[in-house]
Design brief:
Helix content is 51%, strand content 20%. It is α/β, with parallel strands linked by helices. The strands form 3 sheets. It has a 5-stranded parallel β-sheet with strand order 2-1-3-4-5, sandwiched between helices. A 5-stranded mixed β-sheet has the order 7-9-10-12-11. The chain has a two-stranded antiparallel ribbon with strand order 6-8. Strand 4, helix 5 and strand 5 form a beta-alpha-beta unit. Helix 3 packs parallel to helix 4 and helix 7 crosses helix 11.
Length: 390
């Protein structure tokens, strides 16, 4: 460790070298010397790695207190020990107030000086270790952030480029199905029936892939802060009804019924397109994880809540299913990314593990909150979305 000794007594340099000969020889300490504060500042500029400054207070040209004021605030890894006469306690207190970590009184007891230097050196070493570890962690965190940013950008590009061919696959599969069903004798020709079935499977598989890509794109946009939210007053009940109509055929294919209980004029400030996605995700999940023939209840109503003597009105959307319910473990990871819960799709549907994480982000961006309640396995689940009413 490099130590700068600042003292105008030339004999003090000789004494330091003799008293610390063993430590100098072992490479434990390296000493530099300066006769006053001005020279000391020059030495510090030349030797940025000086960790301990041992300085007298009373010196010509620049005293120890002035030197201390110029170096102590600028380098937390450099510690100052002051030397002064025992009777000069006023200056010693001033030095300690300015950042000195310890002091030695004259005449110098070199045994005491060695112990003091050793103690301060240990403090500096501990601080250097902590500083280096923090720097390593900061660099590692920077590299991780860069890697994550690159991953997100690559994911976004790949997902975006996959959307167009998938749209084509879906479109042509629908054209095949429609063309075949319009052919004469289509209802009795077994080959034509198989073509219809295959085209439907192509369409369904492509829709699942498109849903995955959409979730990946939304997640990438959310992580990058690039998802634009435009809030405007809208009727949440009307948005919810539109989503239900869109999902009605899917529910009917599983023998499920969607029961609607919507109050009119449930007005809130939302991004209609993004809130549609929220409701669609929750209703799609209810259909996906509910057994055949069950009822899904979707409600939207105004509620009032008194908080600190002030009554506030909210819009409460609820999607209740009669499905598999949630365990305590499920509840802890419900809105996390790429989470797998205990419930499984009941019709062979796929799941990205991103839907509910996206729902939470979108709801929060629109000033609301989302949560789920379940009494346990086999007792169904209700998802709630609450928004401030207008």
């Amino acid at each position: 460790m490099k130590i700068l000794v600042v003292d105008d007594e030339s004999d003090f340099e000789t004494l330091i070298i003799e008293r610390f000969r063993k430590e100098i020889g072992a490479g434990q300490y390296e000493f530099l010397f300066a006769p006053n504060g001005l020279v000391a500042l020059q030495k510090l500029r030349e030797h940025q790695d000086v960790r301990i400054v041992l300085t007298d207070i009373n010196m010509p040209e620049m005293d120890g207190l002035t030197l201390l004021s110029k170096i102590a605030p600028h380098n937390p890894l450099r510690k100052v020990i002051v030397i002064s006469a025992y009777g000069d306690m006023k200056n010693i207190r001033a030095a300690m107030n300015q950042g000195a970590v310890d002091f030695i009184t004259k005449p110098v007891d070199f045994k005491d000086l060695k112990l003091t230097v050793e103690k301060v050196a240990l403090q500096v070493s501990a601080m250097l270790d902590a500083w280096n570890k923090n720097a390593e962690l900061t660099e590692a965190n920077r590299m991780l952030n860069e890697a994550n940013q690159l991953k997100t950008e690559l994911l976004s590009i790949a997902a975006h480029d996959l959307k167009n061919p998938l749209q084509s696959i879906i479109g042509f599969a629908e054209l095949i199905r429609e063309s075949v069903t319009q052919m004469p004798h289509a209802e009795t020709d077994e080959d034509l029936k198989r073509i219809v079935q295959w085209s439907e499977r192509i369409s369904q598989a492509s829709q699942r892939m498109l849903s995955l890509i959409k979730d990946l794109l939304d997640t990438a946009a959310l992580e990058n802060g690039k998802l634009r939210i435009t809030l405007a007053v809208a009727d949440v009940s009307q948005i919810t009804e539109s989503v239900v109509m869109q999902n009605k055929d899917v529910a009917e294919r599983k023998g499920q019924k969607i029961r609607l209980m919507l109050q009119p004029d449930c007005l809130a400030k939302v991004d209609s397109k993004r809130f549609y996605e929220v409701v669609d995700n929750l209703i799609s999940n209810a259909i996906k994880y509910s057994p055949l023939g069950k009822i899904i209840t979707v409600s939207c109503q105004k509620i009032s809540r008194n908080q600190n003597g002030i009554s506030n009105t909210y819009i409460l959307l609820a999607v209740k299913d009669e499905g598999q319910g949630l365990t305590e473990s499920d509840m802890t990871k419900l809105f996390g990314k790429f989470q797998r819960l205990s419930a499984q799709p009941t019709g062979g549907e796929g799941s990205t593990g991103l839907g509910l994480a996206i729902v939470k982000e979108l709801v929060q961006l629109q000033g609301g909150r989302v949560w789920a309640e379940s009494e346990g396995i086999g007792k169904g689940t209700t998802f709630f979305v609450e928004l401030p009413a207008v």
